[in-house]
Write a structure and sequence with these properties.
Layout lengths: L1 H19 L8 H32 L22 H20 L1
Length: 103
Amino acid sequence: MFLIGGALLGVIVALLVTALGEANPEFTFGSTFGYFLVIFGVLGVGVGALVWLVLDRRSKRHTYTATAQSVDRYEDADYAVQDHDLQQWTDKWENGERDQDAR
């Protein structure tokens, strides 16, 4: 998305430079536009890539990685929420096991 946007910006700049610049009688409008299109198109893609990299790097500052392991007993867990939360999950766990045993 950013690369395409940068390329489109390069196309617009190339068109403006060609249309508003001083015309050279040795070159046609198409050849001049093509020349500037290549230059500004590559520069636009580069600018789009840089914008994407900066935004991506900025968004990764606010992330972190969490690792979870399954334990058989909640007492073995490194982190536990409050007792009533544990009881709620224990009840769900035990009810789920009874439902599977009944099948």
